[in-house]
Structures are given as C-alpha cells and as structure tokens.
Design brief:
It holds the Pfam family TetR_N. It is a single chain. With 293 residues, the chain is mostly helical. The chain folds into 2 domains: 86 residues, Homeodomain-like (Arc Repressor Mutant, subunit A), CATH 1.10.10; 125 residues, Tetracycline Repressor, domain 2 (Orthogonal Bundle). It contains 14 helices and 2 strands; from the N terminus they run H-E-E-H-H-H-H-H-H-H-H-H-H-H-H-H. The longest helix is centred in the middle third of the chain and has 24 residues.
C-alpha cells in the first residue's frame, strides 16, 4: 500500500511552535532595519527576514536627513580639524535636495577615506553616515575610485585656498611655517596623500592631469617669486618645501620620539615649526636667482 505525505493540516498540528521574534529596539536596529555590527571594519547583518521587514517599517517612519550621522561616531576624528566642517559643503536647506545629498556623501566620504584609505573605506558606511543608500552614491559618483578622486580634488582645493604659494619673496619665506600650521590644525590632507601613494604607487593616477595643473600653478608662483630658469630645480625646491612642512605630520611618531620627547621643555612643536621655517628660507635662498649687480 502506498503511503502519502501527511496533510497540510496534520503537518501544522505536529510542527514545533515558531519562536517569538524579538522586537527591534533603538539599541539593536540599524538604519536599514537590520543590525549593523561593525567589527574589524566589516559590517555583519543579523536579524533575518523578520528583522528586515521590521526595519523597512522603521525606515519609512524614521528617515534621517543627509549628514545626520556625523563624524563624532568615527574613531580618530581628531585627525580632521575643526575648520573641516566649515570648509566642506554644508548641505544647507537653501541648496537643491540633490545637491545637499551629494554634499553629504562627499563629507562622509572625506572622513571615511581619511581614516581608512581607498582599500579600507566601505561604501555602505559612507552612505549610512550620509543618510542615504548605496544606489544614490553610485548614481552620483559611479564608483568608489571616482568618489576617492572627488575627495582628493576637494582636499587640494582646500589646500590651495587656505595656503596658496605666494609669488612675493617675503611671503614665500614664511610659506613653510604657514603650511606647517595648516597641517597642525588638520592632518586629513597628509593622510589622504599618504593613502593615495600607498594605493597607486607608480601606477597611473586617474586624475594625474588635474594634479599636474595644480602643481603648475604653484611652480608659476615660485618662479615669479625667486626667478630662475631651471624647471627641474624649481620642481625640486617645491618638493622640498612641501616635504619640510608636511613630513612631521605624515609620521607623527617620528616627530614625537625624535624631537618632542628629546627635551620637552625646549623641543616643542612651536620650536620645530620655527626651525623648519628657517630651513625652508635657506632652501629658497639657495635656489633664488642672484640679482645682476
């Protein structure tokens, strides 16, 4: 005699009871309705289908505005100076919604790339802090590499705006000190440049032509300030001035161990700043064209 599968009603009677689903609370639910546990830089989703359904309802009732999740949630936020907030686009309500969203994504990406670099940065973390989804991010920037390129453009725009290389000789003599002060306030740009170098090495930089144009502006100002007809020598001088001013912030542990802790009452950061600015003046004087007598 052929046996049949138990009926649906009978299976329901014999099936074990379904365990109750714990409600999502503000302590456990993520912005997308599932738990987002950040461990070792990786996001782990938990909560299953029920959690996702509950999260959808929570998301519909609780949509965050762009940029609502700020840098205070990030470890090491002190690397980005206080002036960073006013330097980046603010997402003001006077701007169109699309532009506010793009600004919020760029602000979140700036911080993410500063802390973790291109390889360690996570697109979902950027979107989450900006208060939107990854699809919106890709709609604006196409890829994570393009987004990193936009961050680097923003970083160099700020640097050129706050500490332009002067074409006046007297002002040029104070250039190293001014760049030192800038990096002392905000170490994000030296970190971004270090990440960029580690990521691309000697490979082609996708935005190489833009960066060359950025440096050409500086070389033109340098040429006007000190004269000289040797492009290679001027380029070497520019590299030297940038290195003198920025290296103590690229490797702060070296600055601390080699200088600050040597004689703490004397070898202060202010003293280092003055010494490096003096070295910068000497380098400028060595390359400057001697006036005809």
């Amino acid at each position: 005699m052929t046996t049949c599968a138990p009926s649906r009603a009978r299976r329901a009677e014999t099936a074990p009871p379904t365990p109750p689903v714990a409600p999502l609370t503000s302590a456990t639910s993520g912005c997308c309705g599932v738990d987002m546990v950040l461990r070792s830089g990786r996001a782990r989703r938990t909560g299953g289908v029920a959690g996702g359904a509950a999260g959808s309802a929570a998301r519909n009732g609780r949509r965050r505005s762009p940029g609502a999740a700020g840098a205070a949630q990030l470890p090491g936020h002190g690397l980005i100076g206080a002036r960073y907030t006013s330097a980046m686009p603010t997402g003001s309500t006077a701007r169109p919604t699309a532009q506010r969203t793009r600004d919020a994504l760029l602000r979140a990406a700036y911080e993410e790339f500063t802390l973790f670099g291109p390889a360690g940065a996570r697109v979902d973390r950027i979107a989450d802090r900006a208060g939107c989804n990854k699809q919106r991010l890709y709609a604006y920037f196409k890829s994570k590499e393009n987004l990193f390129g936009e961050v680097m453009r923003e970083a160099h725009r700020r640097l050129a705006e706050e500490v332009p290389l002067p074409s006046d000789r007297e002002e040029l003599d104070e250039y190293v000190g001014r760049v030192f002060d800038f990096h002392r306030r905000d170490q994000s740009i030296v970190r971004l440049l270090a990440w960029e170098g580690l990521t691309y090495g000697r490979a082609a930089l996708p935005w190489a032509e833009e960066r060359r144009a950025f440096y050409e502006v500086k070389l033109t100002a340098l040429r006007k300030a000190i004269g000289g007809d040797d492009p290679a020598m001027l380029a070497a001088l520019l590299i030297e001035l940038i290195a003198i001013a920025s290296w103590p912030f690229v490797v702060p542990q070296q600055r601390r161990l080699l200088y600050e802790e040597y004689r703490p009452e004397v070898t202060t950061v202010d003293a280092l700043r003055d010494s490096l600015n003096t070295l910068g003046r000497a380098s400028i004087a060595a390359v400057a064209r001697t006036p005809a007598e």
